[in-house]
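Researcher: I've been going back and forth with a colleague about how GCN5 family acetyltransferase might be arranged in three dimensions. Neither of us has a model we trust, so I'd like an independent prediction. The organism is Clostridium tagluense, in case that matters for your notes. Sequence below.
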Amino acid sequence: MYSIKKLDNAQITDLAKIRANSFPAISVPLEKHAEIMNVQNEYDFMNFYGLFNEENLIGGMRLHDFKMNSLNQEIFAGGVGSVAVDLLHKKEKVALEIIKFFIYHYKERGASMVLLYPFRPDFYKKMGFGFGTSINQFKIKPCNLPKGNSKKNIKFLSKDDAEEMCKFYNSIANKTNGLMEKSPKEFNSLFNFESTKIVGYKVGNTILGYLVFHFRKGETGSFVVNDIFVSQMLFEDSEVFLELMTFLNSQSDQIRYVIINTQDENFRFALNDPRNNSDRLLVSLHHECSTQGTGIMYRVINIPKLFEDLKDHNFNNINCKLKLSILDSFIPENCGSYVIHFNNGNSLLVQSDDYDVELTMDIADFSSLITCAVDLKSLYKYGHVRLSDEGYLNTLNILFSSDEKPLCMTDF
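Model: Here is an independent structure prediction for GCN5 family acetyltransferase. You can compare it with whatever you and your colleague have in mind.
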């Protein structure tokens, strides 16, 4: 019989051994794994839990408490990371029990949503997690990045700037769907790695944008062939963006490519030439520009609580009485029908059989829809939803739409 409980420091060290074996590609010494996993002592919103078979630790995870912007409403959400299973206990449903505990742990604490980065998207899709916004990786010659009139406000940042970076980030998070609030400690930790470089748009002590990057050697191993790999980019407005791009553009004498990871699928419109220099044509004259990856996944774990969390969100001024029928095999109590009356965009969950249209869908797709990672028309086109009256498709598509897909700039 399995049991799950919060780990003490000695048990976290034991979990570090399991993690080291579970992720052999992370080629760091065991003591480094233990050091990385010491965050429980540093952050009160991160905690490790272990799954025991009698007295033996055979798996575990790290849980994160988040304050998340969901459609411009701050909600409490849970995240899970560092899920690891002892090699001797694979295929014994350990990971399944871990994720089930994770979901119910946050459900009992009043969260309406949880999220994770999947080691296998199909594994988590079966457990009701829906895809979030994809990331696009662009590989650009520096000369093809925009060049503004100045880079005078671009400065290298240090640990002394961590608090201002955090202040700026949280100001953006407060108005950006999907972003999670962060603490100054999290920004402080960015400076712990010598290879990480951070530049910011800084006027006085105020930061209005930043780039987090590191250098990568080219495939040839030659010391004169190097790329810049941008892992984070955030900016207040176009003026800040252009100065950051001018900084990168000016590296063309020594940098082969600038590699930028962004969740903005429209980033190619900022570029003079968006091609990634693979010289591949996908079909006809369609040049390869970026590679795309699916990552963050969301899961609604309590539908009534979700609509309570979103009670001040305006669903685009729509008037409609919707019967939402959710299929959820992993959380049986989530499975069922909910009648929601939308009046000028304001939602109210009611105990009534009075509705105009019934929308039936799986919880994974609903989780992607309610976060605005996907629109209803796309789900309908691909046969992932059923409508009792197709005439309401446009209405419901507008109801669940947003100008922005959810962004996530938090690794966990």
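Researcher: What would you highlight for our discussion?
Model: I'd start with this: The chain has a mean pLDDT of 93. After that, consider the following. Residues 2-111 form a domain with the Aminopeptidase fold (CATH 3.40.630.30).
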